[in-house]
Amino acid sequence: MDCDVDYLSNLPIEIFLHICSYLDINKSLPALKCVCKQFKFILSDDLVWKSRVAGRWFPNEKGIEVDWLEACKCIENEASYLRDPSTCDQLVSERAHETDIDALHILENHKTIFTGSRDGLIKIWNINTEEKALEKSMILPCAHNGWIWRIESEDCHSIYSCSFDHSLKHWNFSGDNLVEVWSLDLKFPVLSIKLVNENVIAAGVHKEAVLVDRRTGTSFRTIFKDNHVKLCLEMINDNYLLANGAGKKICCYDLRNDKDEVVSFNFGQVTPLVPLHLATQQNIMYVADGSSKFYSADITKNEPLALRGYCGYDAQGGANAKVFGMFASYTSLIFGLNTGSSSRLAFWRTKPYSLKEEENRYSVLVKSGEMLNLGCSGSICSKMHYRDSMVAAAHTMSNDLVCIVPKEFILYSP
């Protein structure tokens, strides 16, 4: 063999990329980029990563920017983690609160969980992957004078919480201390909040949703002027705000044009139940009503909600699971399900569509993955939060806190 010939450099690009398709995106491929300038040049092309996820994710939609390398990481990490129980550790803190846990939030540092309960307490938990334990790091008594219903974060330091006591609060989290920055009395029980640009939108048992300046803690505008309870707020493409409520109607607000109800979906036409959970994926809205069914619609085309299927099954194969949480990731819709005998996770994986299928693209989903148990058999969950292949869930009655963490979790950023 001629040792002076650089066989790797002379490989056709197609063969090189075929070899790369078998390599791990977190370890092997980054090392391969450092071998030579040619490899770095090839692996720096967005088209390489876009092609790598073809067949496993929606293609790029017009006007939507996609970081294809980041999309690859999310897809391949998620595919290898939560769908396989052997790749995950389950961390449990028994009796995390004395009363029901209604608010759960994983910080973007992937090391901290915030919990809020009906006793007005906020507790902060460290995720110790080495000891495989949830460690309570802080208790903030009397954070609110009523049930804490939602906790959100702008980053690892700016935390927001809302409560039945009518208050919306902004906190500064330094890692070992939580300090109140401002508190606003909104004169109605606050059930949902959403961070949008420089504002926080608050809604609940009130005929209007309120926009609040996050910097000063002052309200300055109202939207969604109806008489329905707002149970959940969600965003699509940073432009459209969705709100669902007890009126069985899902409304859309265009934040750019200040126009109320650009699209309005009458959920009562497809189910007698209340739309409890919202999730969005590009321009697609997914809705779950707490039963075993979920629905979908294209928010930009004013299309009606379409029955899509069952999100989970019980041990006998029947569609009796009840949804207690729903989140959308790059690759999947993740459902938290109570099946009557246990609480589990189920995944519906997005599937690419051809140009001929474009009109029906929001309905192209396939069932995927095993259902992972959330705690012991017979245990029922009430709340869930999903972030980057991590899941936190709260159990009813026992008030246990459980967190599912990939054993080889790799922190990456866009």
From TrEMBL:
Domain F-box: 5-52
InterPro entries in alphabetical order: F-box-like_dom_sf, F-box_dom, WD40/YVTN_repeat-like_dom_sf, WD40_repeat_CS, WD40_repeat_dom_sf, WD40_rpt
Positions of WD repeats: 94-135
Keywords: Repeat, WD repeat
PROSITE patterns from the UniProt entry: FBOX, WD_REPEATS_1, WD_REPEATS_2, WD_REPEATS_REGION
Protein name: F-box domain-containing protein
Originating species: Cloeon dipterum
